[in-house]
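FORM 12-B: Structure-to-Sequence Request
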């Protein structure tokens, strides 16, 4: 055993082990076949240096023990297994062995030959497939497995977002690769109160089927992971963000309502959408331009088609005058023949599909930003929708039959490994987001970066990347799955996740009604499996969309989007009809809660908070709450109980006969108020409540302070009258109200204000402490206390 003031190193089971205390709660474990490489480059770990941590180390009876004040690791020198323990000696996790198998790391190119390109038009964009790629060995590497023994009733969560809706990964296999509807994260958490973060950007597989449980790493130089002994989910996430970086503040308007669809066709149409919302008095903060802003044939160009968008800057200024904002879709791949593509080609900045830029090259990222700035940002668009950022999903995005999970992993993952170094095959979207964020920040401090991206990876939160779940289909089953995937993304440490409200695809077999320019293709598609051929003409879809939107009101980003059928509120009926009124009510509720929501956003940045919270965050001791997959906390106070079954209509507007009620579980450890009626319930029980179409069940935890505002039609608007402080008694409560300038980075220099709100339940007193801090444009706030 070698001990320094920073680490312990020794040989075990024929390999080199290095254990490095990072904080009292975090110990890094590095396992190498030969020598441990401590200076290896990491794409996801921000903390390259950290304070020296006091620790003890000893060797006895074939075991090396490394112990901080909170965590101890016991390494068995014979087996290479590590027992991770609390400081008091109780066991957290048994990592019972690890192995590394040498492999040839290969890159693919055409060997100097002219590429044979097969260009394919898919629903997911135009793709190049190179037919004459050749494999070339570039170095030695390893495939690795890290084996675990779990406790009998232990649950494993996290691993990012997939599409199967698996909440607890025990007794499951999950393939971790980038794909439309799949955003892997190299992080899992346990109901035992710890997390494990792998510093790995290759493809991975989590396996807990059969006799062995392990995480497989496709291509690494060594095993490198961090044990996070945070005890609580918030503590574990804090450890994750300490290592990977703080989540950035998004612009305040990003928390308002965002209207999108596939697609708008002119700049004037974008302005008209905002104008219509303003005329009918329904709040909105952003309108989104989907694909095809380029001239016909120039797929992926960041140069506007002047026939349709020649007046774009003027129209964006009109939108700004209406206190709203814009977002535009950009792609990492470009067709040959366009100016942008040619510039990348001439500079040698394309990957070997001869279409996708090399986001791992800093100069290539700078060129991408230069093109995006000149062609779109300078033309008035304010934020980015980085679509198809996997970016090699094409091989699987076809056919009428969905392939087997292992087959899809090999097919799509293999395509990534053709064009990317296999050690970083999961990291393209991360580097793409890095380029957008860093280069926009170099150019302007007046507009916060916002990047809505279909794929991402650990640490992307520091690049202002909001993930969304991809091109889903409209069904009640898929709606349920989406909630589960959002919960696991939050449990992976990533705070920014959203979805297409109402799903992307609505049509099933009636191919004539397909969007995306695909209404002439009768071939079935495995992913085009919505249940509603007539879209908004089908009351069954209107009900599903309305319930989806009610749940989406309580996501970090509130965004409607999809193809096949329009999504603006007026397509769901007239004012005074059931679906229109329910949608309007939900949008207005989002704005009513804006002081609460933006304060949560401040907590995400400053306190490593998570907004969409699995019940494991706040009620870890409640074994019933552990199993709940269709409820979540929105911040510390609101329990959201999504209605995930139809009550009024089936497909084709078929009327249903069932009670409009919903069963909800109220977690132990608190009393709960029905948000709509004020009725109080004891926690630790199921209750059945009314759930008409305009009333998704919401409960407020006793001991809560909800700051709310009236009359908002955009996020940064001054409220009508005082901010109301809604107090729900039954326990002591604290809440910190956060404010800043909303759309710049002055908060980094201290330009923000916080106001601490304290409720003393025994005395029945609410205290509003003196406001701390200041910023330009800060106005006096008057408060109205409302005791429920």
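FORM 12-B RESPONSE
SEQUENCE OUT:
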């Amino acid at each position: 055993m070698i001990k320094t003031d920073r680490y312990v190193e020794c040989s075990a089971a024929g390999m080199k082990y290095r254990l490095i205390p990072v904080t009292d709660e975090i110990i890094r474990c590095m396992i190498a076949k030969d020598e441990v490489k401590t200076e290896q480059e990491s794409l996801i770990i921000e903390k390259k240096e950290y304070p020296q941590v006091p620790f003890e180390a000893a060797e006895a009876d074939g075991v090396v023990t490394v112990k901080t004040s909170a965590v101890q690791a016991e390494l068995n020198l014979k087996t290479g297994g590590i027992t991770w323990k609390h400081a008091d000696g109780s066991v957290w996790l048994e990592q019972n062995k690890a192995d590394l198998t040498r492999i040839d790391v290969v890159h693919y190119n055409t060997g100097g030959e002219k590429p044979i390109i097969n260009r394919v038009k898919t629903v997911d964009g135009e793709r190049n497939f190179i037919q004459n790629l050749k494999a070339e060995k570039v170095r030695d590497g390893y495939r690795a497995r890290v084996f675990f023994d779990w406790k009998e009733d232990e649950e494993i969560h996290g691993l990012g977002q997939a599409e199967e809706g698996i909440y607890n990964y025990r007794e499951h296999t999950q393939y971790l690769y980038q794909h439309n509807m799949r955003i892997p994260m190299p992080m899992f958490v346990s109901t035992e109160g710890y997390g494990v973060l792998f510093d790995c950007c290759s493809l991975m597989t989590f396996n807990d089927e059969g006799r062995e449980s392990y995480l497989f790493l496709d291509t690494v130089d060594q095993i490198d992971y961090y044990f996070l002994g945070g005890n609580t989910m918030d503590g574990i996430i804090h450890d994750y963000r300490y290592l990977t970086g703080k989540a950035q503040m998004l612009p305040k308007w990003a928390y308002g309502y965002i209207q999108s669809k596939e697609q708008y066709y002119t700049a004037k149409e974008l302005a008209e959408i905002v104008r219509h919302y303003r005329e009918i008095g329904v709040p909105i903060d952003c309108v989104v331009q989907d694909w095809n802003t380029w001239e016909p044939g120039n797929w992926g160009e960041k140069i506007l088609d002047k026939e349709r968008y020649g007046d774009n800057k003027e129209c964006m200024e009109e939108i700004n005058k209406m206190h709203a904002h814009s977002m535009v879709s950009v792609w990492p791949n470009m067709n040959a023949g366009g100016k942008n593509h040619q510039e990348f080609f001439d500079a040698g900045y394309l990957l070997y599909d001869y279409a996708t830029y090399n986001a791992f090259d800093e100069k290539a990222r700078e060129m991408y930003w230069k093109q995006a700035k000149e062609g779109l940002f300078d033309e008035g668009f304010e934020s980015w929708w980085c679509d198809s950022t996997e970016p090699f999903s094409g091989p699987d995005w076809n056919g009428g039959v969905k392939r087997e999970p292992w087959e899809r992993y090999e097919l799509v993952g293999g395509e990534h490994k053709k064009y990317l170094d296999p050690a970083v095959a999961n990291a393209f979207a991360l580097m793409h987001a890095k380029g957008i964020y860093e280069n926009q920040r170099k150019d302007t401090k007046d507009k916060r970066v916002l990047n809505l991206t279909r794929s991402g990876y650990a640490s992307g939160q520091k690049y202002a990347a909001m993930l969304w779940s991809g091109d889903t289909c409209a069904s009640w089953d898929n709606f349920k799955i989406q909630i589960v995937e959002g919960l696991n993304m939050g449990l992976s440490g990533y705070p920014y996740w959203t979805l297409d409200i109402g799903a992307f695809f609505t049509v099933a077999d009636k191919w004539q009604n397909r969007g995306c320019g695909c209404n002439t293709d009768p071939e079935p598609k495995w992913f085009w499996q919505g249940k509603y051929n007539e879209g908004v003409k089908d009351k069954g879809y209107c009900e599903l969309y309305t319930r989806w939107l009610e749940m989406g009101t309580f996501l970090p980003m509130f965004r409607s989007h999809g193809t096949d059928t329009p999504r603006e509120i007026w397509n769901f009926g007239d004012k005074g009809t059931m679906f229109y009124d329910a949608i309007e009510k939900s949008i207005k509720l989002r704005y009513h809660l804006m002081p609460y929501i933006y304060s949560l956003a401040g907590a995400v940045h400053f306190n490593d908070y998570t907004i969409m919270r699995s019940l494991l965050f706040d009620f870890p001791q409640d074994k019933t709450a552990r199993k709940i997959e269709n409820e979540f906390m929105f911040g510390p106070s609101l329990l959201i109980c999504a209605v995930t079954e139809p009550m009024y209509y089936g497909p084709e507007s078929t009327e249903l006969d069932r009670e409009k009620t919903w069963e909800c579980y109220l977690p132990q450890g608190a009393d709960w108020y029905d948000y709509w009626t004020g009725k109080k319930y004891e926690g630790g029980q199921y209750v059945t409540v009314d759930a008409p179409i305009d009333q998704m069940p919401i409960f407020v935890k006793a001991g809560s302070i909800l700051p709310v505002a009236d009359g908002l039609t955009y996020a940064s608007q001054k409220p009508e009258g005082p901010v109301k402080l809604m107090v729900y008694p039954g326990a002591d409560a604290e809440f910190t109200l956060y404010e800043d300038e909303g759309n710049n980075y002055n908060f980094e220099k201290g330009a923000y204000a916080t106001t601490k709100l304290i409720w003393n339940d025994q005395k029945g007193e609410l205290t509003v402490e003196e406001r701390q801090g200041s910023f330009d444009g800060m106005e006096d706030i008057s408060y109205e206390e409302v005791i429920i």
